[in-house]
């Protein structure tokens, strides 16, 4: 692939800018709200729009029906010797409520100050479309791509991707690839493009403690009957020490430590601790001793209580010794922690803490391991080079504290490196009113994607 | 006062049995629900019934209007050299809901198996009336009482006795007495009459911890921001150790220890630990080391969490790092603990435990000291002797784990020993559907009350 070929593609991308915005607007007008069954025809219409669009580019897309909303699949021609990239994205959107908080109606895309406002603008119609458009530009300009690109675009991401995993498992061969490209995250900050190379996993639980068979009068019974809310407080307090270290036996055994390069990358990021605290309205932070805030949020395992329920929660004082107390809590995991081992450690810690007069029920909600693409991955390097082309600057390497369960599935089932290339901004109001996408970021995304196919194609498959 | 005088009174009580039940039924028919303003006329009607009834006995009762429901006051003639007893009771009742759980309508008293079923049957119309009837019997049989008895019957007990305290303070001289007689508690068990000689006090608090200014995503922020629900668990856990000892500085300094006689009295009670646990559906108990269940419930200070609230409490898993966490909790106090000192100790313990990133608000709801009448009190002995006459057996001496705030006020303002003489049973369904009063207990109560005036009168006021 000559440099001039890519440049011709990039020139075309430049010329087509307005058309891309028109196409995006058209897709944004379809209220493909997957959570609300009365929008099912619109969800289907959005899938149909994609099929038509991909067909118009010379591909032979498939509309794949599932028990829920359909998948859209398409692929470019195979290129022997070159890697295969699979683009994953979704055409469904979050419900737009509360409607009265929107400046323009959520499905009437409106451009203000260089940003397009509509539900789905970044999440994920706009970001997903950057890859569709870059492939279109390659096809128009060059007639073919320098590597095979496969598209798998789903319509159930906002409702838990219920039917995606089974499709991946049943069609792993068809979907075989070397890397998965997903643009459904954000840049680190405006003007600071980022590659997210790691996600934390999760292990989520609910514990129910039951004491007496009914709420008791705390005067008549208090002191003589074990109080489940106190037992719960003691158990939760025992899970983490005052240095922020989690006390489950074996919890840190498999934790992959941060490398020097990673710690340096994070330290180099324009993260302002004071601004962070101010924005959250807090006067300081606590956390695992010896780690920075970004390290704690992205690369260290953590424990959080997500909910507490017991006894009387109304106004004023009620003298009750509650029958029950329960807590929802989660551990965020990092590679190579195994959620199953965490559950075992949790039971080992909690079971001896159940006092006489209390029974414990532990609900294991769901678990997903953390994931990290080594910074040395050639696909990560190719993506960084492409971002330099598209954005005019090198990306930072960041991790994400949350989990994207489907990323784990892609990595596990397809055995491929997952490239999380976000073009959006942290304040793009995903899942909130006035969702937006900066048009310059949309264009940079398309340019980066166009360059990415070139950079990936140059990776020597034999090394 | 000769023995035969009392016996004549007791003979009359015996003869009047049926009439007493008729009178009680009449009072029970009045739905004097103090909590519901639409029953205000009925509350007034019940007060009027009492005034008429006391007047018919030859007293000159007063209906005392307050900003709420009226008080009824009456007194017998002063008896120089004899002590003065003040009977406190209430003619108002709890709402009867849920109505569909009643076998007979709550204000249509019905006798089944020797028990009268109606709202207010024991609490407190039936128990209060035993003293009215005993005085009536003395007046009818003897023309006078061997001591002065004052009645103060209120109509706001079930709604917090809002206007009683100011009345006590403003009329302390009029109400002056040596002992206060209250029948608004229970026997220890059927056939085990009891004198309740001690009540625990209370200090009730609510703590609010606030972290970030909104609920955060536990993946994105977890580990980097102090979690208020974890901070709350740690604080609550720090209040009490694993031996059930409360860790507030100075908490035990003023605690009056149980005497040997008290421990023996409690040990002699027919309390079945196994039956207690079985009834509550628990497989054991915990509590302050070195004390029995009754000692823990009646005579030792305790800590109970009454409510916990934080974060997500709905179904399933929500990955939230909550903005707030709060708990309601109380300490039950014994003499001579001072609620104000408890508050000071609590602040001393909790304030250093507030971590960076959390602000604490501590709400001090209400406090009342505990109260104990020394077992050596001559009034207590007189009451025990009277119970022997009325029930045919000596009473046990028990304490009560709860607080009766008004008892403290009587003790404090009138500087009198308070005799809590309960004729009811623990299963009389106070505040529940199918409230009842065993007619034999009603009769024993009247007999005991009649004997009480005799026994109290014999106390030498000079010793």
From TrEMBL, chains A, B:
<protein>
    <submittedName>
        <fullName>Succinyl-diaminopimelate desuccinylase</fullName>
        <ecNumber>3.5.1.18</ecNumber>
    </submittedName>
</protein>
<dbReference type="InterPro" id="IPR002933">
    <property type="entry name" value="Peptidase_M20"/>
</dbReference>
<keyword id="KW-0479">Metal-binding</keyword>
<dbReference type="InterPro" id="IPR051458">
    <property type="entry name" value="Cyt/Met_Dipeptidase"/>
</dbReference>
<dbReference type="GO" id="GO:0046872">
    <property type="term" value="F:metal ion binding"/>
</dbReference>
<dbReference type="GO" id="GO:0006508">
    <property type="term" value="P:proteolysis"/>
</dbReference>
<dbReference type="Pfam" id="PF01546">
    <property type="entry name" value="Peptidase_M20"/>
</dbReference>
<dbReference type="InterPro" id="IPR011650">
    <property type="entry name" value="Peptidase_M20_dimer"/>
</dbReference>
<dbReference type="Pfam" id="PF07687">
    <property type="entry name" value="M20_dimer"/>
</dbReference>
<keyword id="KW-0645">Protease</keyword>
<keyword id="KW-0378">Hydrolase</keyword>
<dbReference type="GO" id="GO:0009014">
    <property type="term" value="F:succinyl-diaminopimelate desuccinylase activity"/>
</dbReference>
<dbReference type="GO" id="GO:0008233">
    <property type="term" value="F:peptidase activity"/>
</dbReference>
<feature type="domain" description="Peptidase M20 dimerisation">
    <location>
        <begin position="197"/>
        <end position="354"/>
    </location>
</feature>
